[in-house]
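Try this one yourself first.
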């Protein structure tokens, strides 16, 4: 069974639109794009989320980071069962969601200063 981020975190549907390979300036082909995405280690991303959870002061952010950590862990467990293309899409989707959440947290921090 393949886990899709939008199945676990439905709100991610608006944040996780796939990027076209041509939109990555430094990557020329879909194969290169997949290679770049496959270099992302879901286990390291889960560890990043864990570190962020420990330092987050906002309860909502901690909850979101906990879900993200679980998504990275699930993706790490599924790595051997997904094609390179599917893995690249999933990594991009979860990564984009993580970037969006980080940006929202930074914005909230600056607004509350």
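Now uncover the answer:
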């Amino acid at each position: 069974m393949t886990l899709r981020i939008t199945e676990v975190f439905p709100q991610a549907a608006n944040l996780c639109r796939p990027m076209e390979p041509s939109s990555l300036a430094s990557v020329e082909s879909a194969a290169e794009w997949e290679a770049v995405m496959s270099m992302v280690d879901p286990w390291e991303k889960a560890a990043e989320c864990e570190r962020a959870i420990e330092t987050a002061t906002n309860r909502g952010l901690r909850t979101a980071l906990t879900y993200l950590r679980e998504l990275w862990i699930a993706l790490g467990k599924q790595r051997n069962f997904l094609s390179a293309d599917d893995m690249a899409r999933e990594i991009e989707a979860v990564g984009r969601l993580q970037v969006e959440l980080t940006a929202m947290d930074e914005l909230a921090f600056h607004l509350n200063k």
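Discussion: The first helix runs from residue 5 to 8. Residues 8-26 have pLDDT under 50 and may be disordered.
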